[in-house]
Amino acid sequence: MKELLRSNDPTVIAFASALLKGEDIETFQMDVHMSVLEGSIGVLPRRLMVRGEDLHLARAILRDNDLHPSAG
């Protein structure tokens, strides 16, 4: 899995996941339960992961929808 997007905003992660699901690209959210450690203040970002072979297309989809994928 490769990191596609990192955000503190859960709505951004949800929107990106929905866009990619519409294109049959599977996603996996990491760090979802980190709020237990941080006290639910939203400091630690969540990461949206995709398969390596889907990374290029997934980045293009996010850019086309004015979301900024992670570099790297």
At CATH level 3, the topology is Alpha-Beta Plaits
Name of the CATH superfamily? UreE, C-terminal domain
Contiguous uncertain segments of 5+ residues: none
Strand order of the largest sheet: 1-3-2
Give the beta-strand count: 3
What's the shape? Answer: elongated
The average pLDDT value, as a whole number, equals 90
Protein name: DUF2007 domain-containing protein
Organism: Brevirhabdus pacifica
InterPro entries: DUF2007, N-reg_PII-like_a/b
Domain DUF2007: 1-64
Outline the structure in words.
It contains three helices and three strands. With 72 residues, the chain is of the alpha+beta class. The protein has one domain: UreE, C-terminal domain (Alpha-Beta Plaits, 2-Layer Sandwich), CATH 3.30.70. Strands 1-3-2 form a three-stranded antiparallel β-sheet, with helices on one face. The protein is elongated, with a radius of gyration of 12 Å. The two termini are 13 Å apart. The model has no long low-confidence stretch (mean pLDDT 90).
Would you kindly provide a brief summary of this structure?
InterPro entries: DUF2007, N-reg_PII-like_a/b. This protein has 72 residues and is an alpha+beta fold.
